[in-house]
Design a protein that fits this description.
The protein starts with a helix and ends with a helix. Helices cover 43% and strands 12% of the residues. The chain is α/β, with parallel strands linked by helices and 300 residues long. The longest helix is centred in the middle third of the chain and has 25 residues, at 164-188. It folds into 2 domains: 23-184, Nitrogenase molybdenum iron protein domain (Rossmann fold); 189-297, Rossmann fold, CATH 3.40.50.1980. It binds zinc ion. Residues 58, 130-131, 137, 201, 203, 223 line the site of zinc ion (ZN). Residues 58, 130-131, 137, 201, 203, 223 line the site of zinc ion.
């Protein structure tokens, strides 16, 4: 190699190995935490998403490509509360990565930062209850998202103190913008207060509480157990005199049971994206599903 090329190579090496340029590798189990990490860490983070909004986060295959990604992680940002119990423990074991073991600084679970709804008094796993630690779907409560954001900022600063000021600034900016958005959403959704719905999965408890909706039945007999014909008949009997305003299911779920009930009751079945899609921000995703609900509900 010519001497000047050597010098350039050396300079490049110095630049990329300079601590200020080292990016923190974040492995996000679900797209909403990838979007939050992006908002809070920007270019200081290299973020990979394990799943998309079109996948069921309860049931993901621990593929070798995911093991390779989690092996490089400095931090994992996941939901917790057993949402990923079928795949994350296996990925962690296979990764042999001490930085992200439970209890390590790089192990960040969103549900550990907030209180949870639907905590069962007794759990019968033989029935396939996949919400045994409480309802993990906190991404539909913007106030809980704020709490998770604050905790994530604190964690990022601990993991990467050289960028403390940037994390603090981005954290403040996110919360200010998010708070303003919450006010706008709450104003917009007032016409939905008191509306009743049937859900495919117990995935909307936080949304329902926030929007002041009323869930009257769930198509799955237990969280994670597919609807059975006997359970669906029971629901139909229950709602026939007083049908729900709409039926909600997640974008990744089969629409079969929801459409069946929609046909029987003459009500709409609405598919709501369960998380951020592609490069959407959290705000864009909230804007999207709130407008979708308002649009679908405008003639109720
Ligand atoms: Zn669930």
């Amino acid at each position: 190699m010519k001497p000047y090329l050597k010098l350039i190579a050396l300079l490049l090496l110095l630049i990329v190995s300079k601590p200020g340029f080292a990016r923190l590798n974040v492995f996000a189990c679900e797209p909403e935490w990838a979007a939050l990490a992006k908002a809070l860490g920007g270019d200081n983070l290299h973020i990979v998403r394990a799943t998309t909004a079109q996948q069921d986060p309860h049931h993901i295959q621990a593929r070798p490509s995911l093991i390779a990604k989690i092996r490089r992680a400095d931090m994992i940002a996941c939901t917790g509360a057993e949402l990923e119990i079928g795949w994350l423990p296996l990925l962690l074991r296979k990764s042999s990565n001490a930085k992200i073991r439970p209890g390590a600084l790089g192990y960040f679970m969103a549900t550990e930062q907030v209180s949870l709804l639907d905590k069962p008094t007794s759990v019968d796993r033989s029935l396939g209850d996949i919400h045994a630690a409480g309802n993990p779907h906190i991404q539909f409560d913007p106030y809980r998202i704020s709490k998770v954001a604050k905790a994530m900022t604190t964690r990022l600063i601990k993991l990467d103190p050289s960028h403390k000021n940037e994390y603090k600034k981005k954290g403040k900016q996110f919360l200010a913008h998010w708070q303003k958005s919450i006010q706008q959403w709450e104003k917009a959704i007032q016409p939905l207060h008191g509306k009743t719905f049937v859900a495919h999965h117990q995935g909307w408890s936080y949304l329902s509480q926030w929007l002041e909706l009323k869930q009257i039945a769930v198509l799955e007999p237990k969280p994670g157990v597919p609807p059975t014909s006997s359970h669906l008949s029971e629901i139909l009997a229950k709602v026939s005199d007083n049908p729900p305003d709409f039926i909600i299911y997640a974008g990744y779920q089969s629409d079969k049971a929801a459409r069946w009930l929609a046909n029987k009751t003459g009500k709409k079945a609405i598919a709501i994206p369960f998380s951020v899609s592609n490069d959407e921000t959290l705000t864009q995703w909230y804007n999207g599903f709130i407008h979708l609900l308002l649009w679908e509900a405008h003639d109720l």
